[in-house]
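Posting this for the archive.
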Amino acid sequence: MEDFVLSHSDPTTGLPVGPRTARGTAPADYTSEDMLAAVLASVDDDKAEDIVQIDLRGRSDVADYMVICSGRSTRQVAAISEKLADRIKQEFRLTPKMEGKETGDWVLIDTGDVIVHVFRPEVREFYQLEKMWLPGSAHRGEMGDIE
């Protein structure tokens, strides 16, 4: 089966440009919650810090969830991102779109259902994506919580 490649993202918002590709063109034997669980497990396994998940359902057509996390160095940011992309490819037979891995300051991984941002702490503080996307009642929290 041919791998499914996702759209490019807007560098100012970190979200894909244009609507998501219809699920019928990719393997559809998983839910967005399955993808979110796999993403959260992967970044946790690779020792990402300050993991935040944001529920975008009803707020955006480009994805159901966003995950934001940090690595301590450019090397760790790149490693977290690469391992996540490999795990998504193996588990879901999906090739996520990845941007920024070469510099390792901010890597965006677009799985279609979940958009993942992996930052170095200084870069994350500068862009403050959480402030843009977190609703007032959301929290930085436990991996198992899906709001």
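The helical segments are 32-45, 74-92, 121-127, 129-133. The radius of gyration is 14 Å.
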